[in-house]
């Protein structure tokens, strides 16, 4: 009710009685008892949710409390300012409306509560009007946002949303809170017969209630006031047991996000530490060098936190290439399953659940490690880290696909995934000499000076499609006067495939051996044509001692040589082309421009845009070791081929040997009569224009 408050040496100011029509002596104690009880239930529920996270396995070699200012900055930008959520306009704006509305009403409620316990009366005059106006706007934003969410979920449904978490509770509760709040306000204004200029919704509703008698107004207001209070208490109490918990948990993965490079996996142990301990005669605990998830207790606290924080928004679900080809993996459902597993294993009434009976190994082997899920997640859940950690356990328990195990054996015994003879890595040099009269420096046979080590890679040495890329690069480097050499038969696997498959020990053994080779030959700069090698050399090897060595993808080198006029594309290539961004070059390392610059520099070449490019590029299906085995469902490479072939280009341009193999393979399985473009690396296309 608007009333006159006597303020010393001042004029009467507008305000209202905080407990209008709730005059019973026990009303206020009962209300606060209700709120305190609800808060107690909330705190206990929150503790039960967080307890398994606090008790979970620590992260090794991965400090999540460093760079505090950077972490706070991310928290401000992505938790409070909703920077990533807003990247999708409709749901982003709806979510921002809900957050702003909720926060506004929470602040207004706290102002009223503070006034109720303050000896100084400040809830009056213009301040009172502004707070009332803010409450109207807050309620309106909350109502509009929830209405938008409800329509998207239940009317204009999308693939990424489902109803696995009793999602109807969220809009129902918020609608109840907002609607009863506005109705109580309208009834109060109608009952006091005094309009409040800044409470425009309350005023409008008061007009609707003018037909009611004073007694009916008071009785209805009293009933709805207590109903609103009970909704508020129930909302507080149920927070930890509904998706509302994300109000508290969702900001945590943002704050604790990894500060590692995008393409750098977590390191569960270091063989270098073991070797150093043995050298010093220090006794080691072998358990410190175990890795992987074998049972529930092996999950790290970050994995459990991510599962608890997941809001099931489905952004990861719709971009996952495995999910889009009907494979068992959905990043969203994987983390919801880990959450369910956590609930089961922390229930006293149930025995510990077998992780891999609850979560099928096929789910984990379906991942291509393309990082699209991590890229899309608005709260920075680290899906790939958890998946690889679970793969480590599966591999150790001999639950990996047979083809993958054979491939890993080939790498260990033959240094390449094909299992071909290690001394055949130089075989392609003979055809390079016969066809183009070129001889390359081979470090294993001659101690010559060089500026760049050209890391050919296993595909570049053994796969016919990629041997052509090795030849094109060699010709272009020679023509530009680049001082480079190769390792020849001394070259081995980079270890990337082993690490993503879950064989951490073999990966680190390879890393240690390769770094020793680099040191022995004085390597300072490395060029690689494989983005997977590029990523692991650049982002993962430094942790094991590769310091002061510059890593380049061949597209970066070729683009710089064109800019310096050391390579001049002159021959007209009158063809249309679409370019495929490799995950490990583009999304992981943000190398988007060099391949495009190369193609744009070629006269006559027409580049057609594709829907999914750059950081939104669709995976070719070969990453995460999947090039060596197949999972149920349709093929990812066929899906990507169809996207790249939509404009019927003459060529599909690639910059990765795995992408070349996968997309070329897809082009050979299309229906008869389908337009089939040539699959060609940017280096080969450039060579056709230069020579």
So what's the overall shape?
Answer: elongated
How many whole angstroms does the radius of gyration measure? 32 Å
Strand content: under 5%
Total domain units: 4
Total of helices = 29
Using DSSP, what is the number of strands? 9
Termini separation (Å)? 87 Å
Question: What percentage of residues falls in helices of 4 or more residues?
Answer: 40-55%
Helices and strands: which structural class?
Answer: mainly alpha
Mean pLDDT: 91
Strand order of the largest sheet: 1-3-2-4-5
Assembly state of the chains shown: single chain
Structure, described:
With 691 residues, the chain is mainly α. It has four domains: 193 residues, no CATH class; 129 residues, Fumarate Reductase Iron-sulfur Protein, Chain B, domain 2, CATH 1.10.1060.10; 143 residues, Rossmann fold (3-Layer(aba) Sandwich), CATH 3.40.50; 115 residues, no CATH class. The chain contains 29 helices and nine strands. The strands form two sheets. Strands 1-3-2-4-5 form a five-stranded parallel β-sheet. The protein has a four-stranded parallel β-sheet with strand order 7-6-8-9, sandwiched between helices. Helix 26 links the parallel strand 6 and strand 7. It starts with 26 loop residues before the first helix and ends with a helix.
